[in-house]
Amino acid sequence: MSTRANASYTETLTLAQNPYLYYSLQNLSQSKELSRLPKSLKVLIENLLRNLDGDTVSEEDIAVMAAWLQQGESSR
Q1: What are the b/e assignments for 30-57, b being 16+ CB within 10 Å?
Q2: How far apart are CA 37 and CA 53, in angstroms?
Q3: Are 30 and 24 in contact, with CB atoms under 8 Å apart?
Q4: Rounded CA separation 36/57 (Å)
Q5: pLDDT for 46-75, tens place per residue?
Q6: Which of 2, 6, 18, 41 could be disulfide-bonded to 37 (CB atoms 3.0-4.6 Å)?
Q7: Cross-referenced Gene3D superfamilies, in alphabetical order (predicted)?
Q8: Cβ partners under 8 Å of residue 39, min gap 6
């Protein structure tokens, strides 16, 4: 498994003996709040998880997107 910052958000799905790596929003938060986000924002958060490296995308960037539900907007 990768040692990148995003490795803690990955899961493996095995189908027909072929493993597939994916980025899990459930690993980001056990809160049911993320399940209430619009699908478009879920896709954006998944993309941030995929590109999380501490430079281009930080943990704070992801937290801001995830908090959209409480605030309904973001200045970032």
Answers
A1: eeeebeebeeeebeebbebbeebeeeeb
A2: 24
A3: no
A4: 23
A5: 898 889 888 888 888 888 877 776 777 777
A6: 41
A7: Aconitase, domain 3
A8: none
